[in-house]
Amino acid sequence: MSQQESSKRNKRAKNKTYAKPGSLSFLANKKRRLLTTNEIVQAIESEKGHLLKLIEQQPEAPQSEANGQSVEDQPLEQEPIEDQVQMNSVTPPTGEQPEEQAEGVSSKNKRGQTQMHNVHARKERKLILLNKLNQPVGPTEDVVTELSSFLGTLARNATLCPFDIFDWRSMDTKKDLWDYTKEKYIIPEAAKDWALVTIREAWKRHRRDLKINYYDPYDNDEIRMAKKPGHIPECQYRELLKYWKSEKFKKMSETNTKNRKKLMNPHTAGKKSFALIRSKLEKEKESVSAKELFVVTRTRKPDRLYKASNENTTSKIAEMEEIEKQMSTNGQSVDAFSAVMGPEHPGHLRLYGVGVTKTTLKKKVDNSEPTLNATNDVVQQMQERMQKMEKQMEEQRRTMRQEVIADVVAQLQHAGLIDPNILAALSVPSPREATSAQTAEQAKIPPQIVYLHSSIIIT
């Protein structure tokens, strides 16, 4: 009975898998196989295109000017923050209008915005040192520049900085932004305000670039939605388009455009922050005047062409130097920068970089000692950790050397290339070898190396 049931099942299986050529079942199976094959081919082509896109997006060389360039990444939902963060960045803010290079001057191919893949993926944290104004200045310029670029990637992330929030004061993800920054850097709490202001400025610039590149060139929202950057969710982008069309935004944009045209002396510092430049100058001389910092941050490179003339900047520098010359002749001291450029306005303080105002300058200078102590504590902790790691590595190296030596001796003994009597004598070190062993311990050299080098006789 069981054999009959088995044969029936096999027969039904054959009838299901086999179809006569030319029959409807045969054509249906063929169509089903073709669909499966096409899906596989499409998946392969899609993966290939994705890989090529990633290769094209790899950064080629750092740029020193802030240009509105974009290569967009698709955000991932319901993933850890490290996977959601878009690996893009913008030129770190310095609080001054940057100088623009003339178009068509460089023959280099334009690349997308900086993508900080290595920072988002790494588990180790880098140490950040602050100056007395709680601005990052060390341990190296490269680390500080990397930090600023990393913060720029957070400003363009649709999860950490949603595009349907139009006022930075309403951004309720500031704690998440700071917490994620501390996952990648050992940075004191005193730098939190600086970090958030840096992200805010990058957030503003990115939205300005989005409007210039994806809103202004097109006549209607249908085309704008079709040209939507890939890293912005559709629902957020629709709200952003509505905001750009509102009367409130248009009025604010006109005011900002007028104010921006009043900036006559753009800086040429590029990615390097004013805090870094000031820190470098203060290492060379005890006191740095505002005029000296103005000159350094406005000096143009001789082999580069720029869009605008710098006659206004040059003439103001000449006025400052003339005032300093006259005051030195009369034996008087005067702030040549303020005399030419005028007094400071409320809010941002010129030539100090991000996060410094008149109020915070006085407050931070008075309270600089606690900040320096906190920074020193962080440095001391890092040094202790490094010393502990070095000891562990030395122990591992010593163990490996001993194992290698024991293995070599065993192989020589097995091959009959070493005298067994001498090998037995090695177990009882002579006074000379004992002294050598003591010296080796002091020099962190395994005693086996000393014994092997001084006593083994090859037969």
From TrEMBL:
Superkingdom per UniProt: Eukaryota
Pfam families under this entry? Transposase_24
Q: Does the keyword Coiled coil apply?
A: yes
User: Does Iron-sulfur appear among the keywords?
Assistant: no
Bias type Polar residues, positions: 104-117
Where are the coiled-coil regions? 372-406
Keywords on this record?
A: Coiled coil
Residue ranges, annotated region (Disordered)? 1-31, 88-119
Extract the signal peptide range.
Answer: none
Q: Provide the protein name.
A: Transposase, Ptta/En/Spm, plant
Q: Give the species this sequence originates from.
A: Solanum tuberosum
